[in-house]
Protein: Gap junction protein
Amino acid sequence: MSWAFLRDLLSGVNKYSTGIGRIWVAVVFMFRLLVYVTAAENIWKYEHDEFECNIKQPGCENVCFDHFFPVSHIRLWALQLIMVSTPSLLVVFHVAYRENREKHHNQKLYRNPGKIDGGLLCTYLISLILKTGLEIVFLVLFYKLYNGFKIPRLVKCDIKPCPNTVDCYISKPTEKMIFLYFLVATSCLCIVLNLSELSYLIFKYSIKCYLKRYTKKQQ
Structure:
């Protein structure tokens, strides 16, 4: 899978972000995207082939694997990376709209098309809310699908066509557990960063509006 588009998107958003937003971009790019591409993808690459049960009943192993791993960890992680990054497109599109509007009118309509104010501020806040919400949704989804954030060494399966309860073994459970904890930790860090940036922007522009009103009253 090519991640060039996501990389370019994050690079473009970085130009219009606050300081906290740039930290978020760095975390997503360095600690999530790069780790996924260079290491995590290979760990889960042959997870189905390396899933073994102590019985050779046709279909039993496949059914057990599908029951305990309804969605691959690594594919769900990839979907999470894509989904939490795409709300940033709203900001990129809004800035592009401002720039095209200036070209159409052939005059300077904004002091800086990429400055977070006015309508762009609302778009930026919406993108932060969406990113935070998606992070939380995926963490809950991970927890519900796999009954917690854990990778057991042994699972017991009694689903048909298995004739009785069979033992199935998951390959490299410790290594997978480490990366799963890393996934959860970086997701939580991104949630904290998004909430911090959201609070910062709301506080900053609330103070700005208050000072404007106060100045007008004094005048």
Remarks:
- The mean pLDDT is 81.
- The two ends are 61 Å apart (CA to CA).
- The longest strand covers residues 154-157.
